[in-house]
């Protein structure tokens, strides 16, 4: 599995598909889950806490602003990186997922 399979184009930039595992010991990118990047999140899935931690962690690690586009109540989420090309997001993701 490669980062390229988790990233798609979006009219506003690039879209990233993630699979979230809430309630972990620490927040970290741990590889892939099908066509999504698998991320363990230390926060519980209550009142949006896991979503906030996910967005903050990935934004910090990638150095990009991200926002949840769909899947806020699901483990499978789509995040958009406005103004970022698919190739740039894949490059940054490869650096943190391997």
Using brief descriptors, characterize the structure shown.
2 helices, 98 residues, alpha+beta, Conserved Hypothetical Protein Mth637, Chain: A, globular, six-stranded mixed beta sheet, 38% strand, 6 strands
Q: How is the secondary structure organized here?
A:
Elements: E1 7-10, E2 13-22, E3 28-33, E4 36-41, H1 49-62, E5 67-70, E6 76-82, H2 86-97
Descriptive account of the structure:
By secondary structure, the protein is α+β, with helices and mostly antiparallel strands. The protein has one domain: Conserved Hypothetical Protein Mth637, Chain: A, CATH 3.30.1200.10. The chain is built from 2 helices and 6 strands. Strands 1, 2, 3, 4, 5 and 6 form a 6-stranded mixed beta sheet that branches. The longest helix is centred in the middle third of the chain and has 14 residues. The N and C termini lie close together (11 Å). The mean pLDDT is 93.
Strand-pairing-aware structural class: alpha+beta
Assign an overall shape.
globular
Ends: how far apart?
11 Å
The level of helicity is: 25-40%
Q: What percent of residues are in strands?
A: 35-45%
Name of the CATH superfamily: YggU-like
Main sheet properties: 6 strands, mixed
Q: How many discrete structural domains? A: 1
Please trace the helix and strand order, writing H or E for each element. EEEEHEEH
Radius of gyration equals 12 Å
CATH architecture: 2-Layer Sandwich
Q: Which CATH class? A: Alpha Beta
- What's the pLDDT, averaged over the residues? 93
Could you name the ranges where pLDDT drops below 50 across 5 or more consecutive residues?
A: none
Number of helices: 2
The CATH topology is Conserved Hypothetical Protein Mth637, Chain: A
Number of strands: 6
């Amino acid at each position: 599995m490669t980062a390229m399979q988790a990233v798609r184009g979006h009219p506003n930039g690039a879209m990233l598909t993630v699979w979230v595992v809430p309630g972990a010991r620490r927040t970290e990118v741990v590889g892939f889950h099908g066509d999504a990047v698998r991320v363990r999140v230390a926060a519980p899935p209550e009142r949006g806490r896991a979503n906030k931690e996910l967005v903050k962690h990935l934004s910090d690690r990638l150095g990009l602003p991200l926002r949840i586009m769909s899947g806020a109540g699901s483990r499978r989420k789509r995040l958009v990186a406005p103004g970022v090309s698919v190739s740039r997001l894949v490059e940054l993701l490869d650096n943190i997922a391997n």
